[in-house]
UniProtKB/TrEMBL annotation:
InterPro entries xref list: PIN-like_dom_sf (IPR029060), PIN_dom (IPR002716)
Key word Magnesium present: yes
Organism: Subtercola lobariae
A GO term for molecular function: hydrolase activity
PIN domain residues: 4-119
Entry annotated with the keyword Transcription regulation: no
Keywords tagged on the record: Hydrolase, Magnesium, Metal-binding, Nuclease
Top-level taxon of origin: Bacteria
UniProt-recorded name of the protein: Ribonuclease VapC46
Organismal lineage: Bacteria, Bacillati, Actinomycetota, Actinomycetes, Micrococcales
């Protein structure tokens, strides 16, 4: 089983927000399943490091979180797929590679608290959850 975290979810593991505790419980339960993997793409590192700069948490905290995840390198063809995904829709540029990566690795669950991204992920057939 593969659970994919986008940045809106991963950020809640570094900054306490209303959904943080529920997300931690959900991921703990998921992590106890045999063969489970919690993943994200390399794009997450850039987004979390920029978030740390804006919000004032440490780069060491970002590094620690990334070590706990299976971080997937984004290949060029995934960027191409992301760019062609949902033409004419409201899918934003940095959301598309997350969705395309989750599709590529056949994620069983896609966690996003970004409503626009969650809607786009559901439109391409991903099972979106928002533990709260």
């Amino acid at each position: 089983m593969i659970c994919y975290l986008d940045t809106s979810a991963a950020g809640k593991l570094l900054v306490t927000e209303p959904e943080s505790d529920a997300l931690v419980r959900h991921l703990d339960q998921f992590g106890h399943r045999r063969g489970s993997v919690i993943a994200s793409s390399t794009l997450l590192e850039t987004e979390l490091r920029r978030m740390a700069s804006r919000l004032g948490f440490t780069q060491a905290a970002v590094s620690g979180l990334l070590r706990k995840l299976s971080v997937i390198d984004i290949e060029r063809d995934v960027f191409r797929e992301a760019g062609l995904m949902l033409p004419g829709g409201s899918l934003r540029s940095l959301d598309a590679p997350h969705i395309a990566t989750a599709e590529r690795i056949a994620a069983d669950e896609f966690i996003s608290y970004d409503e626009r991204q969650a809607q786009s992920a559901a439109e391409v057939g991903l099972r979106v959850t928002q533990p709260a």
